[in-house]
Task: inverse folding
């Protein structure tokens, strides 16, 4: 059984690379902290696959958040504190999983790589 995590990044924000990397890391870590230890261990044993995908805007990001929740997947929506390049309260990205690859793929297959 294969496990993975996806991180959805808002393309409309045009975040600088460093900011984008930090936001993705926040999402990944938060989702892992919310996950069952058994799933995290299996995912870790397989190399912790993470796929970074893009969504058009906040509306699309929130759509995937709801779809993931409806499927019972672990999520972590990141809201920026606004200390650097974007306004406080801006929702920047969303991690889904780690979970079984087929569960995540059924949800995010139509999205493109960042």
Result:
């Amino acid at each position: 059984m294969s496990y993975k995590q996806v991180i959805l990044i808002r393309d409309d924000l045009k975040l600088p690379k460093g900011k984008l990397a930090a936001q993705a890391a926040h999402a990944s870590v938060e989702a892992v902290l919310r996950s069952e230890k058994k799933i995290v261990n299996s995912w870790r044993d397989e190399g912790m696959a993470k796929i970074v995908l893009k969504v058009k805007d906040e509306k699309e990001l929130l759509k995937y958040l709801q779809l993931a929740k409806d499927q019972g997947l672990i999520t972590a929506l990141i809201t920026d504190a606004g200390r650097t390049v974007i306004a406080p309260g801006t929702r920047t990205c969303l991690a889904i999983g780690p979970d079984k690859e087929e569960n995540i793929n059924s949800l995010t297959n139509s999205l493109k790589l960042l």
Residues 71 and 103 are 8 Å apart (CA to CA).
